Amino acid sequence: MSNNDNKQKSNINIEIDEKIAEGTYSNLAIINHSVSEFVLDFICIMPGTPKNKVKSRIIITPQHAKRLSKALNDNIVRFEKKHGEIKENQQPPNVQLNFGQTGEA
Predict the structure, then answer these.
(1) What letter does residue 18 receive in the DSSP assignment?
(2) Concatenated DSSP letters of 54-97
């Protein structure tokens, strides 16, 4: 019996509800990290809006952050091979970020 025969096959069943499947548009991501986690905040900044809220926050381990970075890069390479180079036409504006009141722990 080979090593491959000894390995158990596993299936991961993934379900997505309708609300999550709709997705949330984001045009700004803020990434912070500590020793044990990466925090990704996704925001939608709209012109003329005085206050913008975080639409989604994802907290992942450093290992998952590295895998996500690699997966994003791999997908960008495949996208550009099929559709052409993604151009970064405009520098993002220098925006002062204000998260409101912050407390101390």
Answers:
(1) H
(2) EEEEEEE-HHHHHHHHHHHHHHHHHHHHHH-PPP--SPPP----
Domain regions of the chain by residue span: 23-83
Of 66 and 93, the one with more pLDDT: 66
Report the length, in residues, of the chain.
Answer: 105
Model pTM greater than 0.85?
A: no
Buried b (16+ CB within 10 A) or exposed e, 33-72: eeeeebebbbbeeeeeeeeeeeeeeeeeeeeebeeeeeee
Six-digit token string for 41:
């905040």
Rounded CA-CA distance 20/6 in Å is 37
